[in-house]
Structure of Sister chromatid cohesion protein DCC1:
Amino acid sequence: MLFSQDYQRSVEDVHTIIQYAKLDHNNLTNTAQAIYYPDGDQDMSRLKLLEADDHILEQIKEGKSVSFKGALNEKVVICTESRTYEVKEAEISNSLLLIPHLKQAQATSRSPIKSPKGEVNTSLDSSTEEVEEPVDSIDTVERRDVVKIFHDYFECRQVKPKYRKIIDLLRLTKYSGPENEHLVDRSLLFRFNQLLDTVQCSKEEFQDGLKKYRAIEIDDRIRMLDSEYEYRIVTLLLALIGENSWDLDEIDKDVSVESLQGIVPYEAADGVFDLYTEKSERFPGKFKYREDLVCSLFAEKILQQGLKFQIDDFLMTWQETLPEGFKADEKYLRGIGIIDREGNVPCVKALNEADLPTNLLVRLVTLFKTKERWNLEQIEPYIECFTTPTLGVTSILAKHTRSLVVNGVRIYVSKH
């Protein structure tokens, strides 16, 4: 038995095949390409076929980072600098051959009409119709080796960034001030790039995740703050508004951070200030505190896991704890607490999205055990992490829950 590399097809072989196949020489170009399959000793397992969308292709062409991420117990994802894709192996219905330098039909002809250099009638079909005399028969055979035969490929589907690892890893080393650092295992601390390489999301999404879970950089390590310590820093910063007679949108960053020197480390004060503020529209160079984050923090301080609060009492207590100029609103409980008006005693209770299971079905079971009936606005913050560009919250709920309309409002209940 001869392997492919031991046999070279000649021009005469090609003419014989053409004769047996009853092909018309007028429809053929000058150069034939003989395809040779690899022998069984070649190991091409390192080559994989990846289906890339326009975004991934553009990233590769521009020389930007495109990387695979995934630990032993995780599904693999591929990340660009701004997007995350779930990677799945899919079968190809027909075998696909990878052949480097394979020429397209026009490049195999020396005819000025058929050749791309003629810049006219570049279609092979149209060129053969316009040729009045028979073209030269095949006189050249070029070898083309198959590098690999593919029967499957990697299929990419854009997904939401997987942030849970940020929470799970940073919760182990929460920062509660320099006086408590001796209690922290330094081997569990992560630099920015170390954590980025571990978490399954793109760099841009990773930076958004750090802001979402209020993580800051202290001593060149990414840290989440202890809730009590974070609350203390924020209340100290907010107290400066009254002390300096500032309007809510003319906060001075330098004065604010320097005022906490000797009480809070500079990096902690600076990081918390950046998290909780945004640029002022009225006063260039000044800042204003984000009402949503401040109100959510104060609500988390009041809410405690396992406890229920009567709605009116909770809202009154919440408003009383907020600094002047901030207004408590139910929308600021998004993702951290729920209001249940359908029970015997309408109440508010804590339900932090970051504490729920990462499996969709298990999470739905947990949600419906916590509350039997949900409207879209209530359940959305707990489901949106499972959405994709083509699959929204309503589509997920339509598949995994039952819905009914009560007083013109769509309500979702458990399917089982």
Summary: The longest strand covers residues 84-98.
